[in-house]
Amino acid sequence: MEPHLHAALRRGGFVLLVGESTAGKTRAAFEAIRMLHPDQDFVAPSTREAIAVLLDEWEASNGCVVWLDDLERFLGPGGLTTSTLHRLLISHPQMLILATMRSHEYDRYRDRAEIEISGPAQEIWRQGRAVLRQAQVVHVERRWTATERERARALTTDPRLVRALAGDQRFGVAELLAAGPELVEGWKHAWVPGNHPRGAALVAAAVDARRAGYHGPLPVEVLQQLHAGYLIRRGGVELRPETFQDALNWALTPTVPAGANSLLLGDVENGLLAFDYLIDLPAQEAIPEPVWVAVMDLASPHEAYTIACNVYLYGDFTLALPAFRRAAEAGIGQAEAILWELDTPMRPAEEGLIAAKQRTRALQRELGADHEETLMAESMIASFSLHCGHHSEAIVLYQQLIGRATSVLGDNHRLVLGLEFGLASSIFASGAQDEGLPLLEAAVLKSIGTLGAEDPTVLDRRKCVVQLLMKAGRNRDALERLTALEPDCTHLSATHPITVSVRRMASQLHHHQS
């Protein structure tokens, strides 16, 4: 691994180390930077918003290393996008961006993962994947080879490393140094009545906060509120839980002599964070509602948007709405589009249209007219034009965008599919119903062929066709299509926006019939 890492660092630009938790990514990066770039400035943004500050205010002329540990924390709106990445590297040619990412997170952005993602999470996923494709990726293996172990034995007298080298070879040396397996066993055993069940509940709440997408320290008072539900579900008073202070002390106590890690990291004053080795453990239960609510309240608007998309993916849409509103108010265009899709717009379409035009102009200057992010932003202009009732303008915009997006992204890209449906909707809404309805049905069929019949985007488009027909007074045609749609929505939750809309439309159509 070391030769590949050193070669990547010498080339410069954007370097990403990928490996399992406790594989040794951070240590490998630190030692390589200390060897190759010992005199450069070192900058470590603490939040995704800090990247924008770095972009606007950094003026070092002799180069610097930007350190993004756990890169997933920085991806998405308000953080590291292809736009900000290019601007950083173009405006600061001597800058080196060095990042780490756990294998579990990296795998979420592989091409095959797209079929598992729906709703607003798709756009965040695409943005993240676009950033990762710009990186020089260096893989760090968790388990050392026999040769590496022998070389380490010959060179070290450190008792901690000696112990790790003699440990179970199912685990990596760095993993044993970090005490990952030992911590997991301690957490599981802590649930035993009379042991440390309250401490185990504190850890469970902190782990779920990170699984939800919140990677900042949790205030102790928030963790104290959240852990109670975990304790009750596991038996409550029957577990004979220890005091809260004893629970905190236990969760913050490092393993001895295995290493310096503990189940919870941080301190009472600045907040507590679950050790990342625990986040990727298999067979974890669903994240409770109070955790989602708490972390969305704590998060910045950009982080809250990402978490809301995760809630949406889990199927709890009511919980996600406040965070989507916060994000939209902070200027995140995708969040505003989602609110329109959920029939809960934040502002009049005319205001949304102005904002979409401003964002598109900015992206055209930064990335060029045919970049995927620019095309996405421009599609919002067409969408808001349609919402405003400017049908002729929307038709022209959609026609132009389809040609450009197809040439750049391909005929079956999700954006192209959405543009084709938008064009058909605009034609139908303009009054050309005989022309528009076949185009709508053709766009839906193409989406089914590409995305699958159960994809929420497909179901939403079928729902939109019913709505357009109802608005046009064609209730018989609407009922026919709604009857075909209803059984295909049974896998969605009762609170899913599509399910709610289908029920409402069915009630309206049956009322008109009676």
List strands and helices in order, with pairings.
Layout lengths: L1 H10 L1 E7 L5 H12 L4 E3 L5 H9 L6 E5 L13 H10 L3 E8 H5 L13 H12 L3 E4 L6 H10 L3 H7 L7 H5 L2 H11 L6 H16 L7 H14 L10 H9 L11 E4 L3 E4 L14 H10 L2 H14 L2 H13 L3 H9 L7 H19 L4 H16 L3 H19 L4 H16 L3 H19 L4 H16 L3 H11 L11 H17 L1
Parallel strand pairs: 1-4, 1-5, 2-3, 3-4
Antiparallel strand pairs: 6-7
Helix pairs in contact: 1-2, 11-12, 11-13, 14-15, 15-16, 16-17, 18-19, 19-20, 19-21, 20-21, 21-22, 22-23, 23-24, 23-25, 24-25
Structural overview:
This protein has 514 residues and is α/β, with parallel strands linked by helices. The protein folds into 3 domains: 141 residues, 3-Layer(aba) Sandwich (Rossmann fold), CATH 3.40.50; 116 residues; 218 residues, Alpha Horseshoe (Serine Threonine Protein Phosphatase 5, Tetratricopeptide repeat). The protein is built from 25 helices and 7 strands. The strands form 2 sheets. Strands 2-3-4-1-5 form a 5-stranded parallel β-sheet, with helices on both faces. Strand 2, helix 3 and strand 3 form a beta-alpha-beta unit. The radius of gyration is 26 Å and the shape is globular.
Short description:
The chain is an alpha/beta fold and 514 residues long. It has three domains: 2-142, P-loop containing nucleotide triphosphate hydrolases (Rossmann fold, 3-Layer(aba) Sandwich); 179-294; 296-513, Tetratricopeptide repeat domain (Serine Threonine Protein Phosphatase 5, Tetratricopeptide repeat, Alpha Horseshoe).
